[in-house]
Amino acid sequence: MAASGRGLSRVIGASSCPAWRGAHWEARGRLKPEYDAVVIGAGHNGLVAAAYLQRLGVNTAVFERRPVIGGAAVTEEIIPGFKFSRASYLLSLLRPQIYIDLELKKHGLRLHLRNPYSFTPMLEEGTGNKVPRSLLLGTDMAENQKQIAQFSRRDAQAFPKYEAFMNRLALAIDPLLDAAPVDAEAFQRGSLLQRLKSLSTLKPLLQAGRVLGAQLPQYYQVLTAPITKVLDQWFESEPLKATLATDAVIGAMTSPHTPGSGYVLLHHVMGGLEGMQGAWGYVQGGMGALSDAITSSATAHGASVFTEKAVAKVQVSSEGRVQGVVLQDGSEVRSKVVLSNASPQVTFLKLTPQEWLPEEFMDRISRLDTQSPVTKINVAVDRLPDFLAAPNAPGGQPLPHHQCSIHLNCEDTLLLHRAFEDAMDGLPSHRPMIELCIPSSLDPTLAPPGCHVVSLFTQYTPYTMAGGKVWDEQERNAYADKVFDCIEAYAPGFKGSVVGRDILTPPDLERIFGLPGGNIFHCAMTLDQLYFARPVPLYSSYRCPLRGLYLCGSGAHPGGGVMGAAGRNAAHVVFRDLKSM
């Protein structure tokens, strides 16, 4: 993503490094004065776009401002000996075709699938010597029902039907992710041929309608209603409802009571890994290893990827067409097209000359909802957390629940709503929602022997706090201490195991990774900012009012998450446009 960057660049290119593997490889190189396509930002979507374009014969260069590739999908050794997936930390949503087309396994991608995948321990104070209950969910439906029956036999019976219901909706929406939305601009203002072509993009929508059939009204409610309303129709036990509701609010400044929160839940359950629908896993070596594999695939076909080379401006010809970029160091690089993996706000409000964009378009971009509740805390520990609800093994080796997404302060949807209300008042949540993951439980290469890396994805923390407070070192540490106190209640001894920590509040996520407002999706995944309207109405097909400039990041359809769909879809739109030039 574009921002300041200095010093000599590192270039990753097939011509200079036929045996390149991994982000640790370094080489010096000179820029060419011209490419067919330039990609701004080496986030995973930008890398995917470059890999596809290069395979289609489009000579492509990627420029990244940071010294590491991957955008938010990076591995960084913040604390010596501990390798963190510093921002994004789990994989599921990456489109299956991308694995195949880019031959990611051949280029070194290795995955650790999680089963079980979800663990929600209870506090249940006052139970004497009795071990508190917990809810452990995995791929074994009979075992899931047994776990749920601790809280409600009725819910245990309903759970398979709920899963089938949600899987059908995910199946219906799946084709929409792999194609540009209906080109409303072409349909409204284009030639007859353009209008006919735009009609062909209705096919995935019609397919979705056929899959959902007579149940379409119930599915419509899932997408538009508060997730609590949806879950209340299926279940009665709060631990189950709250656990499921976390997927509806994670990364979003919404409450389970917010209308439309059901779509965010669907967004997080419609992935899969290695043919297993809904599966989530860890990438061997951290999320940066995924970015390495995509880069390796791109460079093997001739693409060039430059780090510490920030783009300062998109260049526009006198005829109003993109003709390349200007780098922060003053270098000019010409190209026929420019794809931006930066956010819509950075792309159009900072990098693009304002005189070439309509005022109404600029106004819509400036008003995008980018609120984020997320503070990510990366923690190095010298032993595994020891949960009251699931005590550790005598030898300290990882147990099944340690590989899960561990949900803390998630026993009740009311807890999640109260945490949200705190943020609406400009306060960090008094009892934050915490998703705790321990990727080193399955991938020991991430930490020294006996030690572990812990990812804490927490919310709700407002970007701007009440009372004029700012996210300085004192406020960061005060919030992290509160989070650690919460974990200590579930797993006594956790605080004593901490070797070091890396605290990333919403302003930090914005500054380091270019996420506007700290929003992991670039802009909110609300119904008014999806599909036809992402990022804004009439410009959802990766194109924009300036000819030759395209969005290929999370701010474009189908949105955020480590999915790659925006990059792949944008590359195909760009290739079609280049053929017609």
From TrEMBL:
Pfam families: Amino_oxidase, NAD_binding_8. GO terms for cellular component: mitochondrial matrix. Residues 266-387 form the Amine oxidase domain. Probable oxidoreductase that may play a role as regulator of mitochondrial function. Interacts with COX5B; this interaction may contribute to localize PYROXD2 to the inner face of the inner mitochondrial membrane. Belongs to the carotenoid/retinoid oxidoreductase family. This is Pyridine nucleotide-disulfide oxidoreductase domain-containing protein 2. The gene is PYROXD2.
